[in-house]
Amino acid sequence: MTKQRLVILGGGESGVGTALLGKEVGFQVFVSDKGKIKDKYKEVLIHNKIEWEDETHTEAKILNADIIMKSPGIPDKAPLVKQIRTMGIPVVSEIEFASQFTEATIVGITGSNGKTTTATLTHHILKQALHVGLSGNIGDSFAKQILEHDYENYVLEISSFQLDDIYDFKPHIAVILNISPDHLDRYDYKFENYIASKFRIAENQTKDDYLIYDADDEVLVSWLKSHPVKSTLLPFSLNKKVENGAYLENENIIITIDNNKIIMPTNDLALEGKHNVKNAMAASTVAHLLKIRKQTIRESLENFQAVEHRLEHVLKINKVQYINDSKATNVNATYYALESMGAPTVWIVGGVDKGNNYEELFPFANEKVKAIICLGVDNEKLLNAFGGMVDIIVETQFMSEAVKIAYKIAEAGDNVLLSPACASFDLFENYEDRGRQFKEAVRNL
Asked: Would the annotation count 112 as a binding residue?
């Protein structure tokens, strides 16, 4: 019998992880990347005798696949992907491919904002008591971890792009933190397509599985009304009492599952801001479901270290606080950042706009922002949106210059906030590169 042929499009973390797992379980594997494969990944492929190509796609070697794993970064609009779909070759994401080779309990976390923080926080709590991996959009690939560690539990941070190519993938516990318009360029500019994509996280769940979601998020609540799921629902809310799930009362998080109630004070949470109370609720609900002791949950919430590039306090210089929120690649993330500012703020914003509507930021711009520095190749939309609201609005295409301008404008007691509300690919490699350049520029002041 000839081996089944697994072709992998994209030679990054998820692609190479899938290649290793695919080879181990008996597939004939071929990796193809239209761009350049990084040296560290090339070395892994060569060492494991896996056939690969980069800077091209050889159709003859791709279209004879039995199954194709597509990197989440490649859009369905790509001509090659269209051709593959026309031919009826199944296209799966890494989480779909890898999940069939593990019996682990899976916690899947998605949402437009807060995924990384909540996934990292959930993992931080669970690892005190369980054998658990952290993967998905974060860290080593899921496929590689199944191959190397075979954890009994996984916390997966999952993007809508990864959910677009699932068939049977089913987390025992699914979390949808929130949904706001993001990546609409990949969803024909239709918000409902993006919402449907996020809800695929629950499509294979049964009544024995759980869906944890934000009951204050109108988008989520109305979608669930018209598209009911089979899962057991565990909502969380800052504004209303919930019978099963989590809510806030007198600064305490109260979590109830099957009449088993635990109470967590929020005054010592390591993370600041309303949105982080929600992230803590989601993570604690997961932990409570998986029978982690209350004391362990409480201590973990208090000693958690924040995620890099997410409202990360960099330095205080001349009584001005510099804050790196480079991970804010959409308007909603920046909304949380500006909402949590307690002092006049010099705001560095801009990049690749994904169809942004800046209106929801207007109240904060009026109330908290004293100056705006636009850091992008094309800043026209920002200038039109905020031009009349602040006294100072300037443009630059260099991070070092943006930080120097901010340094000149900011006075003692102010904040300088990098929260771009946009993707980073016009001037930077990715949001991490953008955040690191910001931190370096601040340290060089």
From this structure: yes
Per residue in 232-267, is it b (16+ CB within 10 Å) or e — as a string? bbbbbbbeeebeebbbbeeeebbbbbeeeebebebe
Contact criterion met (CB below 8 Å) for 298 and 128: no
329 assigned to a ligand binding site? no
Q: Look at domain 5-92 and name its CATH class.
A: alpha beta
* 111 labeled part of a ligand binding site: yes
Greatest distance between any 2 Cα atoms in the chain: 73
- The domain locations on the chain are 5-92, 96-303, 312-443
Residue 117 assigned ligand-binding role: yes
Query: Do the annotations mark residue 345 as ligand-binding?
Result: no
User: pLDDT (tens digit, 9 = 90+) per residue, 189-198?
Assistant: 778 888 898 9
Fold classification of 312-443 (topology level): Protein-Tyrosine Phosphatase; Chain A (3.90.190)
pLDDT 10s digits, 18-39: 999 999 999 999 999 999 999 9
The domain covering 96-303 belongs, at the CATH homologous superfamily level, to Mur-like, catalytic domain (3.40.1190.10)
* Between 350 and 355, the higher pLDDT residue: 350
The pLDDT tens digits of the residues spanning 214-241 come to 999 999 999 999 999 999 999 999 999 9
The answer on whether 115 is annotated among ligand-binding residues is yes
